[in-house]
Prior knowledge:
The chain has 262 residues and is an alpha/beta fold. Helix content is 39%, strand content 17%.
Amino acid sequence: MQFKSFDQVLEVVKGLPKVRVSVANAQDEKVLLALKKGVQEGFVEPVLVGSRSEIERVAWDVDFDLNGVEIFQADALAAPELAVKLVQGGNCQVLMKGLVNSSTFLKAVLNGEWGLRTGKILSHIAVYEVPGYDRLIFLTDGGLNIAPDLEMKKQICQNAIDFARSLGITLPKVAVLSANEQVSPKMPVTLEAQQLAQLARKGEITGALVDGPLALDIAINQEAAEHKGIESPVAGQADILLVPNIEAGNILASPSCTLPAA
């Protein structure tokens, strides 16, 4: 089944066993609201790490009944480490970021002794359900890798493909984004985009159609692609948007912004 909306994902998740979610510095209103909904829907069992008094205060504010919810007392600096260790040790299956700086959170995640390293590059994926589109749209990497080189982008791309395939998209279409579609030595990003597409054709990136460089409008809007005369199996149909650097990805992936509707 290919998931085309968050509602479809939710319906399937409801039928699966509950997942235990370890939350670092859980004393955050939006985090607790999300967990509250997950508990109500029946697929989340939260494990909260942080200041017990603050967690209880915020939970009271959002009307989240903590009866039966496991809480681990920890100060702001110790909470990320404990939350990660709960996942690393098998007590929980999912790690969630609460009221903690991203660099502090990731330092715990990437700790060489007790962190969650797998030997692969860690990358960020944002998933959008955009009105007017018949599919979910994935964007990577807007949160972790600052200025990835070609090899890193190759791994970031493969991570996103594997994730999209886990949601039933059997052959995701990946648009390697740039300012335009012309390959130029003056814009190294366009050269790397071209190389990534070539790597996919050689089988060094698997499970997807990859093309680039493509501008954002060309990647997701069929009319724009046709207007510019762009012939590509990805143009106007992209499932995954691979950005050139963290600045571009962070701007697009910001919770306060939205992708353009079709």
